[in-house]
Fold this protein.
Amino acid sequence: VLLVESGGGLAQPGGSLRLSCAASGFTFYNYAMSWARQAPGKGLEWVSAISSDVRNTYYADSMKGRFTISRDNAKNTAYLHMDSLKPEDTELYYCAKHLTDSYARGMNSWGKGTMVTVTS
């Protein structure tokens, strides 16, 4: 399993970024995917999940209305579109594969992350 995140970088408050997660080494369309984030010196925070068939999406309360998760099973890629960015969104963002097609099962593979920095 290989998950490679990209798309992070600098953004201004109120701005937008789209993160991508390129997946390989497994049958992508069979597994739910999540995004999580971690600030330096803090714990991991789950951000959002999407079911394998794209029908169901889930968000942490603080991200609802600002972040949108999606996936393209033909391209083996998951995305996280982030709008209305805030300085407190400055974290390292990880992509993760779930154990099954269901978000309800845990995650067992992680990428190395892509850094998002929101500053004016």
Observations:
- Residues 36 and 46 are 4 Å apart (CA to CA).
- The chain has a mean pLDDT of 96.
